[in-house]
Design goal:
By secondary structure, this protein is an alpha/beta fold. It has six helices and five strands, in the order βαβαβαβαβαα. A five-stranded parallel sheet has the order 2-1-3-4-5, sandwiched between helices. The radius of gyration is 13 Å and the shape is globular.
Amino acid sequence: MTTQARLLYVDDDEALAFLVRRFLMDAGYAVTVCSAAAEALQKLTEQQGQYDLVMSDIHLPGMSGLEFARKALSHYPELAVLLLSGFIEPEQQQQAALIGVRKCMLKPVNIQDLVAATQNLLRPDLSARA
């Protein structure tokens, strides 16, 4: 018997978050959506890091997705983190890799590509190569 993977999706674009949540739920995942990094950190704390994957936009109000990932990974170093953005500077990709972010993707992201990335990041034998 397998358990449903739990995803935390962080994006201040409510319409996009709604669509991504729906598509990921249709793919069989349990998805919690937060509109701000501080809210997402609170959810991680409440759930004691029991999410299997965190997806976050890089450009968030109040706290960037990079800073959110840094804080989340400092408490839960085994957490799989995927960052998304319409534009990712090379320095941001380098910082993401240094703090342990497993993958960065450009928006707009094709939903099939996002589901495939999710599957790869959740498979322990592939996560190191994603």
